[in-house]
Design brief:
- 84% of the residues lie in helices and 0% in strands.
- The two termini are 73 Å apart.
- By secondary structure, it is mainly α.
- The chain has five helices and no strands.
Length: 185
Amino acid sequence: YMPVVYGIDNDIDEIDAQVFTGHSGVSKRIYQLTREVIDFQRAVRPVGTVITTLRHDRVFYRADDSMRQQLRDIEDHIIAVNERVESMRDALVGVLNLHLALQSQVSNEEMAKMSEASLKQAEDARRIAAWAGVLFVPTLVTGIYGMNFSNMPELHWEAGYPFSFAVMFLAALTMWVIFKTQKWL
């Protein structure tokens, strides 16, 4: 069983290195190796039961000392292999949790970047809307005067144009001050 244990240990070490590279196939490889460890555990565990059963059998007590010592050595090796396989499963669970945490961290970082971009877009849209609001009033007043109505009283008034420019300037300035205090500009 030891060559299999060494092979699985080697695979776990490779997976440990791959987890930090961000490779997308690591989860699948961890799952496959976990399945292999479980299959290996299913093969090893019954051997320990057989050896334990033999040690409690009458034949064991009739066997010579060297045979009993060999069975104890085999039992010790099987126990060690079972414990090693269990620690491998624990290590794979830990590596899988680490991999999932790293993926979650990368995902969170991407979401943070997307949120920052979204906030920047919203701020730009708000700034554009504020400038459109500032320019709306002068455009409205200019549009009204551009209609060429003959019954507009301020057309015959000498201060009509300076008054309209003053209204446009004050309205735009008021909107600019409001938007500036609201930090839209």
